[in-house]
Amino acid sequence: MSKKIVIVGAVAAGPKAACRLKRLRPDWEVTMVDQDSLISYGGCGIPYYVSGDVSDESELRATSFHVVRDATFFEHSKGVRVLTQTKALAIDRQAKTVRVENLETGAQQDLPYDKLMLATGSRPFDLPIPGADLDGVFTIANLHKAIEIKQRIAQGKVSRAVVIGGGAIGIEMAEALTDLWGIETSLLELAPQLLPRIVDWHFAAMLKKHLQEKGVAVYARESATELLNDGQGKVCGVKTGQRTLEADLVIMAVGVRPRSELAKAAGLDVAPWGGIKVNQRLQTSDPDIYAAGDCIAVTSLITGRETYAPLGSLANREGRVVGDNLAGYPTVFNGVCGSFIMKAFERCIAATGLTVEAARAEGFDADYALTAPADRAHFFPDQAVVILQLVFERKNRRVLGLQAFGMMNDSISARVDTAAALIAKGATIEDFGMVEMAYAPPFSSAIDSINAAAYVAENLCDNRLRQIELGRFLAWMDNMASEPDWAVLDLRHPVEAAPYVERYGAERWIAMEYGQVRTRHGELPAGKTFILLCNAGPRSYEVQVFLDHLGKSASMVLCGGLNVISRLDVDWLLK
User: Fold this and answer.
1) Can you tell me the distance from the alpha carbon of 268 to that of 196, in angstroms, rounded to the nearest whole number?
2) Where are the domains of the chain?
């Protein structure tokens, strides 16, 4: 028996559900409704369209075989009816109808449904500051905004830009403006770091340094208080509490909020922060109404708590789940780890699961293993350092998260994707240590970097390794008098260590090459706590084990070593 299915929203989750449903129930009547004229596009590709990596906006709306996904495509190729420029006004759950309005003609009609899906997406948050309505101020709300931004740039109307918001979209837009177009770009972030709540501070600091090296001015702990008017209704600058930045273009990228007003007005359960509540089958509190995409609240697979994950990849997976359930094939969406990856010029940064800060805030007895191995065999010509951090719970050895920073290649995505799959299954440190990764020298080391990070975590958990937290070490470097009995034991080549010995003195910075410690350990001064330092950390750990064997247990390893420090903006680092 044929059924009528109405889907509100036609960007990601909606089209995926519609197409899946028509493959399972080709005789059913499926109608999609969207208030925009452009549908089924890759919103996450907008910064790459602005940058020029994607040459034309139609590519964001095209299939892999280069057919644009418009209303005609869905009708003729998929058998799905699409009403564009049509806004859903209200849901009558008793009559099982959706009231819609054609935005061009103003005509209204009621669409009957047997089952309804809400894929209403999200809307960008608008800063409530003076000047937010000036010409030249944009949010990345849809593809139309991106087209207008690129047109202004291509016409030579933009020479200076300010991006407000240091999340992924803000950073990607700052890169897009700077890299191809050579626009003088500033990036503002209210939080103390970029990518707040996504990565820990030291990963954000590595990213910040790289952005600055590429010409983006980054201002953290700084918010826009006013957008300045040139007297003709156009934006000419951004005022903060510390400075005024000139700008022909301002992009507000300060996050998104779920579009759940339609659901709330219909009496469906909605979280206080706006996400539509759904069960594992993505049903709302009305079993005949489903919801998916950026408008819903999802479950964290790590904490079990309600969370928000507005990503196109998740929206498509959720859409398929809804399509299955609408067709009568029970399918569940268990939740999310919160996986993230982005490029920034020549670097890549990624994460899955919880940061150390977030894990501790959730009540976990969390610690982290910070490593700095090569991203492929150390003898392979284009090998490079990748910084990995495994976050784990000491009590039960469960892995809670992984973060990575390195070159723009496939080495990071492979490890973070593997970590996401393992974390979703509740994996332990030992599971990470034993996970099998494909090996060949151009792709990885024989001991894969994800295995190596787990070995460090294992040593920490079993108290075989004592580390000094990175922040504590940096604080001591800024004020060595705070811990007068501490000293660095530099295990690198004497030529590398010599400038630091000269600057800080032989009592504070002791040079003893790794290979000489077993024969020269008697020269180490008594009464000192040694901070063991090498390039990556493994040599420091081995020396700590040896010194412990001698009864000299007053030592701490700086995990990640100079490979991490050199990627931070620290003024004492010698080139």
Assistant:
1) 31
2) 4-123+257-327, 137-254, 340-461, 470-565
DSSP string, 296-358: B-EEBTTT--EE----HHHHHHHHHHHHHHHHT-------B---EEEEETTEEEEEEE--HHH
Instruction: Kindly report the number of other CB atoms within 10 A of residue 268's CB atom.
Output: 20
User: Both tokens of residue 61?
Assistant: 């709306």
Amino acid (one-letter) located at 191: A
**Which residue, among 311, 294, 247, 414, has the nearest Cα to 44 in the 3D structure?**
311
**Structural fold of domain 4-123+257-327:** FAD/NAD(P)-binding domain (3.50.50)
Nearest residue to 292 via CA among 271, 312, 272? 312
Non-local (6+) Cβ contacts of 206 within 8 A are 347, 349, 387, 405, 564, 567, 568
Mean pLDDT by 10 residues, the chain (575 residues): 95 97 98 94 85 83 86 94 98 98 97 98 94 94 87 93 97 93 96 97 98 98 97 97 97 96 98 98 98 98 96 95 98 96 96 98 97 91 94 97 95 96 98 97 94 98 96 96 96 96 95 97 95 97 97 97 96 85
End-to-end Cα distance, the chain: 74
Q: What is the pLDDT of residue 547?
A: 97
Rounded Cα gap, residues 323 and 20, in angstroms: 5
DSSP states of 247-300 as a string? -SEEEE---EEE--HHHHHTT--B-TTSPBP--TT-B-SSTTEEE-STTB-EEB
Q: Which residues pair with 487 in a beta bridge?
A: 530
Helix (H) or strand (E) holding 119: none
| pLDDT value, residue 45 | 85
Residue 133 to residues 50, 126, 170, 233, Cα–Cα distance (Å): 22, 10, 19, 9
DSSP 481: G
Q: Which fold has domain 470-565?
A: Oxidized Rhodanese; domain 1 (3.40.250)
Q: What is the structure's pLDDT at 29?
A: 98
Identify the burial level of 539 via C-beta atoms within 10 angstroms of its C-beta, where 0-12 means exposed, 13-18 middle and 19 or more buried: buried
Count the Cβ atoms, other than its own, within 10 Å of residue 106: 7
Q: Which fold, 340-461?
A: FAD/NAD(P)-binding domain (3.50.50)
> Quick check: helix, strand or coil at residue 177?
helix
pLDDT value at residue 59:
85
Tokens representing residue 301 in the block: 């697979």
Residue 121 · residue 34 · CB < 8 Å: no
3-state secondary structure 399-447: EEEEEEEEECCHHHHHHHHHHHHHHHCCCEHHHHHHCCCCCCCCCCCCC
Residue 400 CB partners (closer than 8 Å, separation 6+)? 302, 353, 354, 359, 364, 366, 391, 392, 393, 423
Task: Tell me what pLDDT residue 44 has.
Answer: 86
Q: Cβ distance 180 to 542 under 8 Å?
A: no
Q: List, in order, residues 6 or more apart from 85 with CB less than 8 Å away.
A: 34, 35, 36, 37, 102, 103, 104
Q: Which residues contact 539 (CB under 8 A, 6 or more apart)?
A: 491, 514
Amino acid identity for residue 360 in this structure: R
